């Protein structure tokens, strides 16, 4: 199976690229050279060439996600599986090669390799935090204005599927994923209806999850999530987006599974998008647990989502 090494991008369709660009710029992303009146490419401050793509179309739609793999041998292995495209040159800015696949519910998954790395963009250093025991910030103060934060990277995305087990089998046949935690129905021991998925890079630390798969009566994206510098970035950006009149969804709070400090918004076309920071990192030795609570119980503190948040 292919070695996945990063979440590369999420891809959407929408009727107004200028409106999407205005929101994503306020959210903390930067337009990439190669964008035009048909496709908008946005990047973070990290080395992925772009992390958010919007194609112009009459109606809004989530297309799918792209996963970076370790090498061209991984692409060749994926291309040999039923339903996969051949290995082909990417037509997106940054070049490289790709294999296009379709999950059982029609969600597009692209494996990408070899596209150009971006030069990192400048961003402020994280603020050191003083707690009751460790005084890490000495002779200096925190000064953070209300302003757009800088998004660093695409951290994860969450997909709703009709059949959790079938979709997990499809993914596990293709990629070296590991489960981090499982959802089961509230108050029950099973069956598993959701899985937090992480990369398997051995002893290298990775995010608690780069994907969450949830069984649902509808198919599509629940949200895509982008990592920012620290909690002050989350909070100051929250105030800025409120000030600019954008649509708050749920936030700010701290998750239970993964521990991230989160802030969810709606883009102009109704897609949920998240700022987060301070998530758990684990290696291949981590063993999954089962969670059987409600959506509101996935929040430790802060703004709690409604019961139907994950439906």
Automatic annotation (TrEMBL):
Residue stretches making up the VOC domain: 153-278
Membrane-traversing stretches: none
Protein name (Swiss-Prot/TrEMBL): VOC family protein
Signal peptide: none
Organism: Streptomyces tendae
Alphabetical list of Gene3D superfamilies matching this protein: 2,3-Dihydroxybiphenyl 1,2-Dioxygenase, domain 1
